[in-house]
Design brief:
Strands 1-2-3 form a three-stranded antiparallel β-sheet, with helices on one face. The chain has five helices and three strands; from the N terminus they run H-E-E-E-H-H-H-H. It has helices at about 5-15, 65-75, 85, 90-100, 105-125, and strands spanning about 30-35, 40-50, 55-60. Strand 1 and strand 2 form a beta hairpin. It is of the alpha+beta class and about 130 residues long. Helix 1 (about 5-15) crosses helix 2, helix 2 packs across helix 5 and helix 4 (about 90-100) crosses helix 5 (about 105-125). It has one domain (about 5-125): Sufe protein. Chain: A, CATH 3.90.1010. The chain is about 50% helix and about 20% strand. It starts with a helix and ends in an 8-residue tail after the last helix. Bound molecules: FE2/S2 (inorganic) cluster. FE2/S2 (inorganic) cluster binds near residues 39, 64, 67, 109 and 112. The site of FE2/S2 (inorganic) cluster has 9 residues, from helix 2 and helix 5.
Length: about 130
């Protein structure tokens, strides 16, 4: 592993041990529950939306180091983003944010928070009274 790879891993570990935006939002614009059926990990994301942009984003739940670090970094990143920008985010967005290629085995871990965020945005746009409990 190179020095740069070490730095990126340190960033992931730091976000896992001290996650940003952990908690819930009372009266969010939308919330959604994401689940990885392979391992049983759960994440719930809460967002508030103002003028078509994410004003705040928080998450809670349990997951592995990659899924929690990804949720921490993603909830920082999406503040101020438009709903359209979020709809266009994909696996490459997560790869860029984490600065690692999680590989096929950990890809579901790395993208759990993004799938959950997209679920919240979908509910906001299409089913505003749904709490995202699957
Ligand atoms: Fe469960 Fe990573 S092992 S999300």
């Amino acid at each position: 592993m190179s020095e740069i790879d070490d730095l990126y891993m340190e960033e992931i570990i730091s976000n896992y041990e001290h996650p940003h935006n952990r908690g819930s939002i009372s009266n969010p614009s939308a919330e959604f529950h994401g689940h990885n059926p392979v391992c049983g990990d759960d994440i719930r994301i809460y967002i508030t939306i103002k003028d078509g942009k994410v004003e705040s984003a928080k998450f809670d739940g349990d997951g592995c180091s990659i899924s929690i670090a990804s949720a921490s970094i993603l909830t920082d990143y999406v503040k101020g983003k438009t709903l359209e920008e979020i709809e266009h985010m994909g696996v490459d967005t997560i790869r860029e944010l984490l600065n690692i290629d999680p590989g096929p085995v950990r890809l579901k871990c790395a993208t759990l928070s993004l799938k959950t965020l997209k679920g919240a945005v979908f509910l906001f746009e299409h089913k505003p009274n749904d709490t995202g409990n699957l």
